[in-house]
Specification:
Number of helices: 9
Structural class: alpha+beta
Strand order of the largest sheet: 11-6-1-2-3-12
Largest sheet: 6 strands, mixed
Strand content: 15-25%
Radius of gyration: 24 Å
Order of helices and strands: HEEEEEHEHEEEEHHHEHHEEEHEE
Amino acid sequence: MSRWKKIVVGIIILLNCLVGGATIYAVQVTKDASQMVSNIRQTVKRNSIRENTTSPNIDNAEPFSILLLGVDTGDLGRDEQGRSDSMMVVTVNPQQGKSTIVSLGRDTLTKIVGYDTNDKLNHAYAFGGEGMSMDTIENLLDIPIDHYVTINMRGLKDLIDAVGGIEVDNQFDFELDGIELSKGKQTLNGETGLAYARMRYQDPEGDVGRQKRQREVVTKILNKAMSINGVSNYRKILKAVEKNMKTDLSWDDMLDIGTNYLSAFKNIDQKQLDGQSQLIDEVYYQLLGMNELLTVQNALKEQLGLPTADTLPNLADPDSYNLFYNDTDGSIVDSSQSSTGYDETGTYDQGTVYDYGTGTTGQEQYVDPNQQQYDGTYDQQVPADDYLQPATGYGY
């Protein structure tokens, strides 16, 4: 064989080795990533309003919804069940090329589905984990919640680091747990990014301002993650959150989302469901305006291709005692037509006690909902002792 033929054969053999090696590496990386997703994947038992219908087919790029839960554990010495003090519902529609993120206030007074009580929204997670949170928010927003992702504080730190940090324009100087952030544009790492997402008391807008920053953090993490190329980089991200995140999405689902829904994540509409502050039996709650809630519900329904409503569906529930106010005139909405907790001026009467709080009168009618037995359909953990008390305004 002539010299040049030997050179050609050598090059071909080298190329085959390189291609073969790359293929083996790609298979191994994909296998590792799939295993990581298996480690964080956890399905939940549900009482879903969609239980008799087919779930969206992500492989066919059908619109779907997902609940993002930020849990206040996993760092700063917190290792209990915790509460979901960050709750966002995301609807994704690739046909419309649009996604919507709606923040829900942790103090929102709502019906806790599966626990037979009205309480703060973030208590659903403490009472019944992801399943009860999904069912409760599904009932509140009147849309199906198809999937969930739960991440704790440590997971958020690691995730921000895994995508190489995020750039923000901080609006004011503040300090939280020894971490100081100055005003202005800057790149945040995991530690400073967590502080940016958690801070509430020094924000002039309080929890509303915190929710805005949390949506900003999630959006910027998502944008950076979706711009990453290669399974090996996704493996890095998954490795970062493997011990601090849970989801019911499979590895195939994640790959399909990254492939079929990319256009929808480039156009993200952000919304915030605000409430009116209300002190009930010396406990702070947020009551939602029925018109604002209906508007948000219909916006999400349009994203999911579902029929919209002319009136708030929640008012048909006989158990929704005074959960909403009329944001047209500011009065309390008495959906029961028989409840007497508010007088005709819309002022709360402390003389009547409902199942969402404790009072100084009417104790013989009150049963502490936090002491009831858990619904066996949920995979629940018994909350720590401080969760077994009436709501008192939890937060970071």
